[in-house]
Design goal:
Blueprint (H helix, E strand, L loop, with lengths): L1 E2 L13 E6 L5 H10 L5 E8 L6 H7 L4 E3 L2 H6 L1 H9 L2 E6 L8 H6 L4 E5 L13 H10 L4 E8 L9 E8 L6 H24 L6
Parallel strand pairs: 2-3, 2-5, 3-4, 5-6
Antiparallel strand pairs: 1-8, 6-7, 7-8
Length: 207
């Protein structure tokens, strides 16, 4: 596995930061992030927001003691109620973990360079509208790719075009199915997303 290291250069942790997770599905990445920061003195997952009231993420995070909140499409587009909720929880960063909607302009303006996503492929390949979840892994297999990986990147106004923060890759076998590729990618996500978030949200700084 080839890893592009995330740089951390400084020496002292900043104060506690609250983050929010946006999720649409089962919430395995959200759970992994919450467990990673459980007991942390620097980062707290304050709330999980979702566009899907039936998503499995709600039960997962409730069991971990993190509140979740569901918003409508209109609320997401207008963003006022969402921004109020984020302010209520003193959220400074938004982390996307399996969130399927394009981030609206008001959220981008309110959190410049503080909305982060993880994509299950090595961007710029296999990205763009409609490229999420198993669709990505099926496209990777169909292309006969010899490797795949994850890309952690900032969000901007276009799908999967924000500045890349971190990438990690893994080799693929010619016999790998899309499900087998997904399993390999999940391992990379679980291993790398939380520490990269940590390095972004609470970087070490010099005295």
């Amino acid at each position: 596995m080839h890893i592009i290291s995330f740089p951390v250069h400084n020496l002292k942790w900043k104060k506690m930061k609250n983050i929010a997770i946006f999720a649409s599905g089962s919430g395995t990445n959200a759970e992994n992030i919450i467990r990673y920061f459980a007991g942390s003195r620097t980062i707290k997952v304050a709330v999980v927001l979702s566009d899907n009231s039936k998503a499995g993420v709600h039960a997962r995070v409730r069991d971990l003691g993190v509140p979740s909140w569901v918003f409508t499409r209109k609320e997401f587009t207008e963003a006022g109620l969402i921004l109020d909720k984020l302010a209520e929880y003193k959220v400074e960063w938004i982390i996307l973990a399996g969130f399927m909607n394009k981030i609206s302009a008001p959220l981008l303006q309110a959190f410049p360079h503080r909305i982060v996503n993880i994509h299950p492929a090595l961007l710029p390949g296999f990205g763009g509208k409609g490229m999420y979840g198993m669709h990505v892994h099926e496209a990777v297999v169909a292309a006969g790719a010899k490797e795949s990986g994850i890309t952690i990147h900032y969000i901007n106004e276009n799908y999967d075009e924000g500045a890349v923060i971190f990438q990690a890759s893994c080799p693929l076998l010619a016999s790998d199915t899309a499900r087998e590729v997904a399993d390999k990618i999940h391992l990379l996500e679980y291993a790398h997303y939380p520490p990269v978030i940590e390095g972004l949200v609470c970087p070490l700084h010099n005295n």
